[in-house]
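Final report, closing paragraph on structural work. Over the funding period we assembled a curated collection of sequence-structure pairs, and we close with a single example.
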Amino acid sequence: MDLKDFGLKVAKARIKENLSAYELSLRIGKDASYIHKLENGKVNVTLNVIFKICEVLKIEPIELFKSE
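Its predicted structure, as stored:
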């Protein structure tokens, strides 16, 4: 898995929860540009951010790492 795949999974989970990138960014304490970069595979994500994202999106972290 690469950063682009990870970002796509975040985007899909975000859309499933009907959240905009801006709304997700507010809930995890990051800029909206960070979410856009994350979803486009342009930024490395820390574990703390992964856990915050998963909490907001109501998913387990493993969901973001599973192969499809």
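The chain has a mean pLDDT of 95. The radius of gyration is 10 Å. We thank the funder for supporting this effort.
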